[in-house]
Amino acid sequence: MSARLKALLLVLPLIVFLGLFFLWPLWMMIATAVQGGTVRLAFPQTATAIASWDGAGPPPASLQAALVRDLRTDTPQERFGDAVRTLNSQQAGFRTLLPRTARAVREAGEADAFDLVALDPRWSEQGYWLALKRSMPAYTDANLLAAVDLKRNDEARIEPVEPDFAVNRAIMLRTFVIAGQVTLLCGAIGLPFAMLAASVTGWKRNALLIAVLLPLWTSLLVRTAAWLILLQDTGLINQTLRALGLIETPLSLIYNRTGVLIAMTHVLLPLMVLPIYASLIAIPRNLMPAAAALGAAPLQAFRYVLLPLAMPGLLSGSLLVFMVALGYYITPALTGGAGDQMISSVIAFYATGTANWGMAGALGLFLLVPTTVLYILYGRLSRTPLVQT
Amino acid sequence: MRDLDPFIHFEAISKVFGTVTVVDALDFHVARGEFVSLLGPSGSGKTTLLMMLAGFEAPSGGRIHVDGRRVEHLPPYKREMGVVFQNYALFPHMTIAENVGFPLKMRGVARAEREAKVKRALDLVRLRHLADRRPSQLSGGQQQRIALSRALVYEPKVVLMDEPLSALDKQLREHMQLEIRALHRELGLTVIFVTHDQGEALTMSDRVAVLNRGKIEQFDTPSGLYDRPRTRFVAEFIGETNLLAGRVAQRQGEAATVVLASGGSVTCDRAGPFETDSEVMVSVRPEMLHLVPDAAAPNALPVTVEDHVYHGDHIRLHLAFGESRLVARAGRRDAAPPIGSTAFASFAPGDCALVAP
Ligand SMILES: Nc1ncnc2c1ncn2[C@@H]1O[C@H](COP(=O)(O)OP(=O)(O)OP(=O)(O)O)[C@@H](O)[C@H]1O
Ligand SMILES: [Mg+2]
Which CATH number among 3.30.428.10, 2.40.70.10, 1.10.3720.10, 3.40.50.2000 corresponds to the domain A168-383? Predict the structure, then answer.
């Protein structure tokens, strides 16, 4: 009993660390994505009053009075700003309307019968009140819907957003496509490379493995700068090709998809090579000679013996590369063009650019779910070795 | 008769690794349907020789003919030989049936025919009921039999086995020896079997090639090796022997009289190539040495009994003959002279062999 307690105490820091810096932020991210909290927090009395309004007729006087009372109370500037931003995203116009109304309400003093419509005719429009009502629930799917280019219309039915604003799905799709392309490239390079590394011994093997691990130990900026030098229009590759007379005009190798794929494949390659290498060196040494002795030509031996035995490594490597690639955004930002940015850059934009944590969380959630599924798959794969030793 | 049908023919075959000659200009034939063992101590080049035949090592010199065709340039998968590896080398990701069917699949045999042949090959080793298992679910002996059935399934001309039984315990090993023997006879296979276990080589083979440092010391039938060793290495490596140093005093046809260094002289019916005055060793197997009371017996050497060692089915007598030590093997019912007594150790002139010292 005391031994278990000691063991527990030993791992306690780890558990606390994981909880504090991994689980809690994750949970907060999910929570902010679905909380309709900003508006409700800023306008608590309005929230209560608006619940009893069915949204069909004109807003009752009691509701208007509740809003006026809320505007009069001293809401912290930041919370008020958040609420305005959220409301404005539902209904353009709130950004000017609310601060203006708040100023007027405070200047007007305690007279209860403040006429909102007289101040600004927009208060007579149903849309503003409906937007207010929609922004009031404790939980909302607005962010989640927005993340996949959907929204609820005035009748609370889900419909696609205007094509001009519908960018998330395309970027999400692009993210998966780029991750897939990088995975394929890593596999195409990683499998032969791992086979080579597993077939040599001594310093040659070490040199090959270090060569593939090197990008992991290199700073991102150094790596990217190196690719710039190599790939730009006046870079090493283009100049060499031109000097050889193979091309007239430089190939555009960077600031486009090619650049992104090259740079990402480079840094993710070790995640592919290492699992394949591990599964290859676990293959008993006499299996390939046995296959040859039994009549398998080299390609047949590869197809029927080596590849199936390397498959668990290839699959785990692919899953690893794919999962990690999904979250890339600095490398595409540095080596890609406008059409090569991935979903993480959109998340970063919402999180740090506009402080819209709800949207950032919702997009993050759409990235987290597939990653988690893949991770569970990966865990299954790496637990069931094919070759029993 | 055998040499008229040299099915496999090694001609001056050599293998050099760096500066080390591992197989040294070997010349020998294996006849069709013959069971030949390559026997020798560790590092004598057995595996290297077998791998050159299977196509995994290129000879540094010489030729290999199989069925009248040169094969040195053929890759392993074109040599049509069944190979059984030391650690079975079953494919872990395939079922037993898939393992056994693998050579057929590689040869493009249609599925139906393949299944029939796999069944037959599994019946051969009586393991048909394991067809759907994985290799890891089988015992060592079962895996060995599957490896055998996989090597036999496409009816190869030659089956090569590199110490196939060395990982099995004694009882299973003896059982498998009989089983492989039986398969060899039934299917008329030509088998080349590598082992460093002399008992295994003697019980299983038609002929045994004794290898030492890349050379063949003697290529002979088991009884030929045991009864008529031609070199000191073979005499010592196969079974147990007493070696008496001496010099050939006189040749009488095939026979020779040898004056022993420890005193006295003996006559041997098989003198081999040794001329008068050459230094030789007389090799006498312990069971050929009998203790007699008087010096009138042939080849009687005066000895002192030093010890009796009980071995269950027989008793070993340790004898001192001048400076030399001899071992004789006595039946448990034989009246052995008491320790310390003197007697004569005698052997028939037909029961000894002369080898180079
Ligand atoms: N690839 C190689 N490179 C260098 N030397 C080798 C190589 N393969 C074998 N040898 C050497 O050749 C010699 C013979 O090896 P081989 O494997 O043929 O012996 P063996 O008779 O099969 O022995 P064992 O009974 O231990 O299996 C050994 O000294 C070994 O070290
Ligand atoms: Mg060997």
Answer: 1.10.3720.10
